[in-house]
Amino acid sequence: MGIFKDVMLFSITAPGLILLLILISIWAGSNKKLSKTKKWIIWGVTIAISYLSTTLAVTKSILINLESFAPKKTISSSDYDAIAILTGGINKGLFEDSTSKVGEQFLKRLISGLGLYESSKKPLIILGGKTHKNEPAESETAERILIELGVPKEKIILDIKSKTTYDNMIELSKIINKYKFKRVVLVTSAIHMKRSIEVAQKMGIPITAYPSAYLTDNSIHFEDLLPTQKNIKINAILLYELLGNIKYSLY
User: Per-residue pLDDT for 150 more than 70?
Assistant: First the structure.
């Protein structure tokens, strides 16, 4: 399922989408049955989609709106009993004796959660199971990082089962009930917060949002209009999140 999801995401985002359009354009150019007008239309669409998928010319406003769903605000340690962090994917090569490596979004979530811990010393709940065969659970990788950064092991509560946002909330609900927490502050990427909050609300989980790992600010910059690798990555993340919101809205 993981490989299928990666292939599908690649095929509908740059560079996979651009590659597909280039192949269609080459086919159109060599097809003698197509009129010049149709060929120019296909080439024009290819150029337009290639540009839009590699820049934030159109998607910036959507991104800003999604990341502003739960504005970040100062919270007091008296407002929560524990800090829940949603992990965000691991790659390979972090530790000498392990192949695990956290992604950028994952690391920024951990840093935000660690900041809350340092100011409150409240328990850290790390939510995330295995996403790769023969790899530790994402939460176990996070635990090791946090311990190396000085967090006592007894202050960390792990969920090693969940693989989706929905599963995250199911396991969080179990942990809240087990430890009798009254309110938990939820740390995840700003772009992912809307989906997380809506799932939590449907389950009746009392959370306070603490978004992190912002992909953009509220301004339009010249570089947003330029085709860059960074913009391609942001658009891919945005598309994945929008599809996730659609999926969870059907629940």
Answer: yes
Q: Return d(Cα 212, Cα 87) in angstroms, integer.
A: 12
d(CA 216, CA 201): 26
- Rounded to the nearest 5 percent, the helix, strand and coil shares of the chain are 55, 10, 30
* Inter-residue contact 182 to 81 (CB < 8 Å): yes
Q: Largest Cα–Cα distance of the chain, in whole Å?
A: 72
Domains present along the chain, CATH in parentheses: 2-65+224-249 (no CATH), 70-212 (3.40.50.620)
pTM above 0.85, yes or no: no
List Cα–Cα distances, 161 to 4, 7, 87, 245, in angstroms: 21, 24, 12, 22
- d(CA 172, CA 33) in angstroms, rounded, equals 59
Q: Other CB atoms closer than 10 Å to residue 133's CB: what's the count?
A: 6
